[in-house]
Amino acid sequence: MTGNALLLGTTGMLAAAARHAALQAEKAVIVSRKAGDFSFGDEALDGKCECLSLSYDDEPAFLGALEEYAPFDIALTWIRPRAELLRAALDALMAPGGLLVEVMGSRSILTGENGAPSIATLRADALAAQPDLTYAQVVLGFVRENGASRWLNHEEISAAAIAQMEMPLPRRIAGTLEPWDARPQ
Ligand SMILES: NC(=O)c1ccc[n+]([C@@H]2O[C@H](COP(=O)([O-])OP(=O)(O)OC[C@H]3O[C@@H](n4cnc5c(N)ncnc54)[C@H](OP(=O)(O)O)[C@@H]3O)[C@@H](O)[C@H]2O)c1
């Protein structure tokens, strides 16, 4: 059992990974704009989940609502924007010794404007300095097969997130990011 789980932005492509986390948790908080409509279709599992319909676009309201459910022993997050402040605020909601699995898109490895570090590097560096938290990043790449490239499917994306729950690495790349020019258009 992994205690209290935060599952943020996991109602889509990460639903299988969210199920994996919820199965092992004592209780879970599922958060997305329409999380109120979400169900695992499993009475026992749904019974230990609190579904909160919240948008991270309104950061103060979002964090204020989540604080009531913290601290979290495990968190699985998929946040599209760079959202540095939001991500840092979520770190503070983790329990000591907790595991944060943060899923990021392919572009998260690109250097920002004016040479700013990529969000993937920035987060990896910041979390490496927090000894009380295990940080396991997933960077979503693409798949090259039969001379063509395609984006990862949901099963592959969730499998990478589950692998980070089971055997956390500072960074796990799902598929490949190289050569960058070969990514699907
Ligand atoms: N290789 C890559 O870099 C890469 C990266 C990303 C995606 N993809 C592909 O693109 C497809 C679609 O991606 P997607 O981002 O739409 O993934 P998704 O996981 O299907 O949906 C986004 C998730 O975030 C939640 N969400 C979105 N905006 C939110 C907000 N403002 N506040 C709180 N939660 C929010 C959504 O729930 P609500 O709608 O309820 O808010 C949902 O849980 C995927 O199927 C994947 O194959 C590839």
Description:
This protein is α/β, with parallel strands linked by helices. It has a single domain (about 5-180), classed as NAD(P)-binding Rossmann-like Domain (Rossmann fold), CATH 3.40.50. Helices cover about 30% and strands about 30% of the residues. It is built from six helices and nine strands. It has helices spanning about 15-25, 45, 60-65, 85-90, 120-130, 155-165; strands at about 5-10, 25-30, 50-55, 70-80, 95-105, 135-140, 140-145, 150, 170-175. Helix 4 links the parallel strand 4 (about 70-80) and strand 5. Helix 1 runs parallel beside helix 6. The radius of gyration is 16 Å and the shape is globular. The N and C termini lie far apart (about 40 Å). The mean pLDDT is about 95. The structure holds NADP nicotinamide-adenine-dinucleotide phosphate. NADP nicotinamide-adenine-dinucleotide phosphate (NAP) binds next to loops.
Distance between the termini: 41 Å
Unreliable parts:
none
SS summary, helix count: 6
Radius of gyration: 16 Å
> Beta fraction of the residues?
25-35%
Q: Could you describe the largest sheet, including whether it forms a barrel?
A: 7 strands, parallel
What number is the mean pLDDT? 96
Mass-distribution shape: globular
